[in-house]
Fold:
Amino acid sequence: MNSAAAPEAMRPSSELESGSHATHKGRILAWAAWDWGSAAFNAVMTTFVFTVYLTSNAFGGEDQTSAVLGGALAIAGAAIALLAPVTGQRSDTGGRRKLWLGVNTAAVALLTALCFFVFPRPEFLLLGVTLIALGNVFFEFAGVNYNAMLAQISTPQNIGKVSGFGWGMGYLGGIVALLLVLQLFVQPSFEWYGASTEDGLNIRLVAVFSALWFVIFALPVLFAVPELPKTRQGTGPGFLASYGLLVRRIKAIYRTSPHTMYFLLASAVFRDGLAAVFTFGGIIAAGTFGFELKDVIFFAIFGNVVAAVGAIAGGFLDDRVGPKAVIMGSLLGLLLAGSMIVALGNGSYSFFGMEWAGTTTFWIFGLFLCLFVGPAQSASRAFLARLAPQGESGELFGLYATTGRAVSFLAPALFTLCIAVAAPLVEPGGAQRWGILGIMVVLLAGLLLLLPVKAPDQAEIAVVPAA
Structure:
């Protein structure tokens, strides 16, 4: 079926069409609150605080601990890639999307809380990385169901705005959680029991704080959003048989809606570049531009604010010009800002009689990078939600997670390669900034792959075989 005949400006999935409750503002707020709460795991546990604690000398030396953590996360990534589509498929067919969102969220919270028992001694390293790796697995499973729920709480007219609002809430929730962690545990502004650094108590309590934060803000969506109706009779295929069904559905989607598969490929590439912007942003700020730790934290806070603003504004644009235009505009903005950082570097320049230091370069163009990351992420989720066949959003977002994991080596590998190539050609300490070129190559590749992909209002609705 071609969507050109659809009366709406943007062709929705059937889940969007059928939900009479879709515009309920309370349900949208409840849904977005999960994003706000999940930032405690993303920002606090896996990015800025607990993994830094795990890779400290207390656990046996940075090189060894980083290698162990990296290995555990790689295994977790492989598990996500293998299992995410089937877990999404089974929650769709059984009408248990909200149930599995709750189960997986509870698993993340429990694993996070158990990190309290990771004492700063080498013999606890394996426990710590195992808990974080398992937390990542269940977090991705929860994210599959959470993203699929977008089709239930939005309409064709506001899906972009709702997606952008969710991403913005995630960024802002991360800022608030990080500020509380800094003030209460890491650099406490007053003396209290939880500020004690003995046996890493303050950091171990951060894990408890993060678990509670996630649970509290995840509860509203479990009460406010109705469960997905069961779409098929019976219990569906067995677990192993689900993979056979998955293969048949992928073939059917490619045959009836090839642009859905093209988008999954293109988005996997440019999403890897988007992730690298945040992954390597702090490293570049410190290594190339000489930021102190406090400066990196301040930049991270401002960067998340700007990213939130970008995501929300991009959501409004999404509903007016379509997600493809928003993604392409964002990728072009990222390429321009990144190129300026590479070109200007940490040198000093004079413009109109004013001195422009290297740190100013990073503050200006680094924040522009953050501005464009948010709308690209948000519009990508809304793009796929519009393409999802009836009752298949969970499975499709499972494929979304899988394809993203399959190419997640690209940006880190090219970042490292560009530094290695530049090292003998530039002054000592000057090669790191050229790693940005590797990230830009990945973003450019994603943009080029996206160009021929039809926008959702022009693409066909996939026809998938029943279980």
Notes: The two ends are 21 Å apart (CA to CA).
